[in-house]
């Protein structure tokens, strides 16, 4: 009797400790250090695309991102990372500001855009206040990278780079 009960008690303790550890580790961005001088690529190497998918809910009010899905208030964003600006959805009526901006959506530019779209391309029609947390922007970019884009290496490729 007694040994069985104490085994159960130890089991509970272990389960509790594991749960606490799980909650404590890497669950929230708040656990990640502030790295004011880090480049976007440095943040991206430790970004969490799964969290980016959750954060994308704030974008989903205006953007679809699955292949072939219709535009909303904003263009479908499938494959946008790495693509030329104003091209992710050819049928979308982009503003002149966006169409004449030129260049591509590399990670640095996307990072600046997500922080403050009106500063990066003045006069565009994406009325969105911007994402202030650099880790959240990195997570969002990592998520965009998983949606039809080949710009970012997948985590598996990154692991294989040393071989
Ligand atoms: C209130 C609606 C709205 C929200 C919310 C919004 N966007 Fe947009 N977005 C737009 C519109 C409208 C455009 C097109 C702007 C133009 O043509 O001037 C756009 C354009 C873009 C583009 C450029 C697409 C291209 O083909 O060049 C990207 C990238 C983008 N949004 C990403 C995001 C992300 C990521 C989020 C969430 C963090 C977000 N947007 C939130 C409305 C929105």
Explain what you see.
The chain is mostly helical and 163 residues long. It has two domains: 1-31; 38-151, Cytochrome Bc1 Complex, Chain D, domain 2 (Orthogonal Bundle), CATH 1.10.760.10. The chain has nine helices and no strands. The chain binds heme C. Heme C (HEC) binds at residues 58-59, 61-63, 73-75, 77, 80, 85-88, 94-95, 97-98, 105, 114, 124-128, 131, 140. Residues 58-59, 61-63, 73-75, 77, 80, 85-88, 94-95, 97-98, 105, 114, 124-128, 131, 140 line the site of heme C.
Summary of the model, kept short:
This is C-type cytochrome. The chain crosses the membrane at residues 6-25. Residues 18-28 have low confidence and may be disordered.
Looking at this protein, list some descriptive labels:
163 residues, mainly alpha, Cytochrome Bc1 Complex, Chain D, domain 2, 2 domains, 0% strand, binds heme C, heme, transmembrane
Return the CATH class of the largest domain.
Mainly Alpha
What is the name of the CATH topology of the largest domain? Cytochrome Bc1 Complex, Chain D, domain 2
Structural classification: mainly alpha
Distance between the termini: 54 Å
Total domain modules:
2
Please compute the radius of gyration using only Cα atoms: 21 Å
Largest sheet: none
Number of helices: 9
Secondary-structure element order, N to C: HHHHHHHHH
| Superfamily (CATH H level) name of the largest domain | Cytochrome c-like domain
Provide the β-strand percentage band.
under 5%
Count of β-strands: 0
Known CATH architecture of the largest domain:
Orthogonal Bundle
> What level of helicity do the residues show?
40-55%
């Amino acid at each position: 009797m007694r040994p069985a009960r104490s085994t159960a008690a130890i089991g509970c303790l272990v389960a509790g400790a594991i749960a606490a550890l799980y909650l404590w580790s890497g669950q929230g961005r708040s656990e990640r250090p502030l790295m004011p001088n880090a480049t976007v690529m440095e943040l991206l190497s430790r970004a969490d695309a799964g969290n980016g998918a959750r954060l994308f809910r704030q974008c989903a009010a205006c953007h679809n991102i699955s292949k072939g899905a219709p535009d909303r208030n904003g263009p479908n964003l499938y494959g946008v990372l790495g693509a030329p600006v104003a091209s992710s959805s050819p049928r979308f009526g982009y503003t002149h500001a966006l169409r004449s901006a030129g260049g591509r959506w590399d990670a640095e530019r996307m990072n600046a855009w997500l922080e403050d779209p009106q500063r990066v391309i003045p006069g565009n029609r994406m009325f969105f206040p911007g994402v202030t947390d650099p880790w959240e922007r990195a997570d969002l970019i990592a998520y965009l990278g998983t949606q039809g884009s080949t710009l970012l290496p997948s985590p598996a490729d990154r692991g294989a780079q040393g071989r």
